[in-house]
Write a structure and sequence with these properties.
flat, mainly alpha
């Protein structure tokens, strides 16, 4: 093994073959799956929760008060899925439609969307909840049909501005006397800015992405964060990598979940840090810059402002808002022309490169206007 040339040559060939074999498997992306055991392990009720104190034997089953286990179903994950979606199961459809209602209206018919048990609240409109649940089941669990029905309802299309009577008698709008008003979620705020300016990469599926993030955050775990480049940084927030100990700061500031635990109902806060993010985060500054370049191409300032406002908010600005934004634009143009170096902060943010032949003062001034719209209540809050 140490002297014979043929033996040494054979060992080297074997190493090469083993390395190729290892490379062919290690470089393949893997996905965790679950498979039923042929002989399931016996499970016990643990005394006082101690793993080394097994008590009474327990077996797979479901609460009979909801729906007794049908005799024709196997007691495994497949059987559980069939039990959950059984036409006689009253719970699954009710929980599902309540969560979709919460997504649209801000609060579920059962306010505690995460708890339908004795500790949860009773539904504000029980008959409506039953009606929606039954229709959802009969439609074949058609989510698109349900969502369309909710947003086209007269309840949703009401004005969201409360009058004095509403404020006094129903401040939380539990009686649905007005339309919903709620701040967009963390993911929606980022995606809306990217979509409106035209940067959003709507590719579906694939691995997680690493968008812009302040340097050094991952060093707390002795890790290094290397941000993606190119079109990857514009992918939807759904694909932003989540490190449980160090959540992405943009999403976390707007109450995005760290995913260390399942959360059905997020808390909603209003802090100065949120304004700090939308005013300074490279994603939002870059989106403003893209808007600035597009607005600079339009010789009609009023039309450019109206189009940007419409893209970001879904609404047409009033004459008063247009005049205010035109004044801001004129003031900023003069400021940037007097001090050209101030345009660099706006024009150098992110990977997007503006047209080098365009007037930098004009683009930067329009970017300020776009940022002002992006930070307004009309953009951040759905009313």
């Amino acid at each position: 093994s140490t002297v014979n040339k043929e033996a040494i040559s054979s060992v080297n060939k074997l190493k090469t073959i083993r390395k190729k074999l290892a490379d062919s498997t290690e470089n393949i992306q893997e996905l965790m799956i679950i498979q039923e055991m042929k002989a399931p392990k016996q499970t016990y009720l643990l005394e006082r929760g101690n793993y080394d104190s097994p008590g009474e034997k327990v077996f797979p089953n479901t609460p009979e008060s909801i729906l007794p286990w049908p005799k024709n179903l196997p007691k495994n994950r497949y059987g559980l899925a069939r039990w959950l979606t059984h036409e006689d199961n009253p719970l699954t459809a009710r929980v599902a439609v309540n969560r979709y209602w919460k997504n649209i209206f801000g609060t579920g018919l059962v306010k505690t969307a995460e708890d339908f048990g004795n500790q949860g609240e009773l539904p504000s409109h029980p008959e409506l909840l039953d009606y929606l649940a039954i229709n959802f089941q009969k439609s074949g669990w058609d989510v698109k049909k349900l969502m369309k029905m909710l947003v086209m309802s007269g309840t949703y299309q009401q004005a969201s501005k409360p009058n004095e009577k509403h404020k006094k008698e129903d401040p939380e709008n539990r009686l649905l006397a007005r339309g919903p008003a709620s701040r967009l979620s963390a993911e929606m705020i980022r995606d809306n800015a990217l979509m409106a300016c035209g940067l959003l990469n709507d590719e579906i599926g694939g691995k997680s992405v690493k968008p812009y993030q302040p340097e050094g955050l991952w060093k707390i775990n002795s890790s290094e964060y290397k941000a993606d480049t190119g079109n990857s940084v514009y992918r939807r927030s759904l694909y932003v990598i989540i490190k449980r100990t160090v959540p992405h700061p943009t999403l976390a500031t707007f109450d995005g979940n760290s995913r260390s635990a399942c959360t059905i109902r997020r808390q909603k806060t209003n802090t100065p840090l949120q304004a700090l993010v939308t005013l300074n985060d490279p994603t939002f500054v870059e989106a403003s810059k893209v808007f600035g370049e597009k607005m600079a191409r339009n010789p009609d300032t009023q039309k450019a402002i109206t189009q940007t406002y419409l893209l970001l908010t879904g609404k047409t600005p009033s004459a008063l808002e247009i005049n205010l934004l035109k004044e801001v634009k004129e003031r900023e143009v003069n400021k940037f022309k007097a001090n050209p170096d101030k345009t660099k902060g706006w024009l150098n943010a992110g990977y997007y490169k503006v047209n080098a032949k365009a007037d930098p003062a004009e683009i930067a001034a329009n970017a300020v206007v776009a940022s002002l719209i992006m930070n307004s209540d009309a953009t951040l809050v759905k009313r």
